[in-house]
Design a protein that fits this description.
The structure holds two protein chains of two kinds.
Chain A (H helix, E strand, L loop, with lengths): L5 H9 L10 H9 L1 H10 L10 H9 L9 H24 L6 E12 L10 H16 L1 H4 L2 H27 L3 H26 L1
Chain B lengths: L1 H24 L3 E15 L5 E7 L1 E8 L3 E12 L2 H8 L2 E8 L2 E8 L11 E11 L3 E43 L3 E15 L2 E16 L2 E6 L3 E9 L3 E4 L7 E7 L3 E2 L9 E4 L2 E6 L6 E7 L3 E3 L1
The chains are: A mainly alpha, B mainly beta.
Chain lengths: 204, 300
């Protein structure tokens, strides 16, 4: 790799100040290196003492072993549970208010006045009559219903009836609301339009 | 003192009666609503992607000039009693996946094995504020989608979810089934593949490729369209051009007609069998090209 600004670096190195070490520095380092050996020699020369036989009993008395309260197992379990619950709460709090992405979760309750019906209105009687009229016309005069215009409208009517049952099952399964009702209105408007077109074309 | 108390009591009773009687008479009832709200701030760069996959969701996305994202998600359960509303809220699940330059939000319904239908209503509401150049991708069924103040690339796949786009600049790809598309103050390259969709756009120019059936198309240019290309059937079409002289036309309609604002163009209209064709090509101008059938085309 090519070195950039080599001259500048060389000049800076040349300008660095020079220092000589103190004359007794090496001696100091030598003393430090012998330290472990000196300690092990000195430790062998230390005197040994045996403790009195009843020393441990004396210590026990001072600590009050005889009066020590023993926590019952049940209470210990309660304490452990409480500690675990506290840890869980701390964990959840940390998780919810983590600094990486501040998150805040709330549950709120309110009341509203509305109709909660989990199925859609069924088709009007006039529409059913019209559909029967279309079926009757097509069974009497099948050639008429084979034309591209009428067959595409008939296909569309079948599709809309299928969409209606799909929407109804969604409303039953997940609940009905204004968005589902808007979708229902859209299907019903399209159905009315197609039925109107079909009836007028079959009558003409 | 007693008289005052009596007056207050009478007023309260009257108020309660006035409140309850119309409710009962209209067939409506008091519904308990339990809402779980998740508010989250995410640090992010100016560029990245946001992907939302919703079911029965109301989605609103706002573009802003900040370098962070704010997400507010509400999981809503409505029921006649509060306990059932709380229980049914458990079936609505939300997830957030945060990867470098990609944030994914989604909700879904998970029912226990024995469960069939709920007795109330469940839905999700998303409100997200993103840097306005964030790339957006949305898939939603049975709700709505609203976009505000964005300058980006957006892909939408909507089923029974009306779409509204306000103050939008950039590329917009829409696949829509039974979902209307409404745009206001947009300058975009739109690629729209729709069925049963009413498309209503007020534009400041741009390119518009639209396919639709059993819908309605209404396009208005406040400035000049760079291109309009429509393929449709059973779909009435209205184009407000803001000056017909600014465009070339290549329009064909089967089993229906084409109406123009001025009789001076009548000589360019050709009719034979069930087809009506209007071709007007002069110098190099932006083109309005339409192929449709069964419903009228109205050029203004």
């Amino acid at each position: 790799m090519k070195e950039v600004n080599r001259d500048i670096l060389q000049k800076a190195i040349d300008q660095l100040p020079e220092f000589d070490p103190e004359p007794w520095l090496w001696h100091k380092i030598e003393v430090f290196l012998d330290f472990d050996q000196k300690i092990s020699q000195a430790s062998q020369a230390l005197p040994e003492f045996e403790p009195e036989e009843n020393q441990w009993n004396k210590i026990d008395l001072k600590l009050g072993v005889g009066n020590r309260k023993i926590i019952p197992l049940k209470r210990l379990a309660t304490y452990s549970l409480a500690a675990a619950a506290s840890l869980l709460i701390i964990f959840i709090t940390i998780k919810h208010f983590s600094p990486a992405g501040k998150e805040h979760i709330t549950i709120s309750y309110s009341t509203e006045i509305k109709t909660l019906i989990n199925n859609l209105p069924s088709a009007a009687k006039t529409e059913l009559d019209s559909e029967n009229f279309i079926k009757l016309c097509c069974s009497r005069n099948p050639d008429r219903c084979e034309s591209p215009e009428i067959s595409s409208l008939k296909y569309e009517l079948e599709n809309l009836n299928h969409q209606y049952s799909l929407l109804n099952s969604v409303a039953e399964q997940y609940g009905n609301d204004e968005n589902i009702l808007k979708a229902y209105t859209k299907i019903e408007t399209a159905r009315s339009r197609v039925i109107r077109e079909l009836v007028s074309k079959l009558k003409s | 003192m007693n008289m005052t108390c009596l007056h207050i009591r009478t007023s309260i009773v009257c108020l309660v009666i006035c409140y309850i009687i119309p409710v009962l008479a209209s067939g409506q009832s008091i519904i308990q609503v339990v809402t779980k709200t998740i508010d989250k701030d995410l640090p992010c760069g100016t560029y990245g992607s946001l992907r939302i996959t919703g079911e029965k969701s109301e989605i609103e996305i706002h573009g802003w000039d900040k370098k962070n994202m704010h997400i507010k998600v509400q999981l809503i359960s409505e029921n006649k009693d509060r306990k059932s509303a709380e229980e049914e809220l458990e079936y609505l699940h939300f997830s957030l996946n945060n990867e470098p330059n990609l944030v994914e939000l989604s909700n879904t319904f998970i029912f226990p094995n024995w469960h069939t239908n709920i007795h109330g209503n469940l839905k999700t509401r998303y409100e997200v504020w993103v840097p306005r150049q964030y790339i957006i991708s949305i898939l939603n069924k049975f709700g709505f989608i609203k976009l505000y103040d964005l300058e980006t690339r957006t892909t939408i796949d909507a089923e029974y979810s009306n779409i509204s786009v306000n103050n939008y600049k950039g590329y917009l790809s829409v696949k829509s089934s039974y979902s209307d598309l409404k745009g206001d103050n947009i300058h975009s390259e739109l690629e729209c593949n729709a069925d049963h969709a009413d498309i209503n756009l007020l534009t400041n120019g741009g390119k518009y490729h639209i396919e639709d059936k059993y819908g309605k198309i209404n396009l208005k240019a406040n400035e000049v369209f760079d291109l309009v290309n429509i393929r449709a059937t059973w779909t009435p079409i209205t184009i407000i051009t803001n000056g017909m002289d600014r465009y070339n036309f290549d329009i064909s309609n089967s089993y229906s007609d084409i109406s123009l604002p001025d009789h001076k163009f009548d000589s360019y209209i050709k009719r034979f069998m069930n087809h009506t064709i209007f071709r007007l090509k002069a110098e190099k101008k932006p083109e309005i090209s339409i192929v449709t059938s069964y419903e009228n085309i109205d050029i203004k």
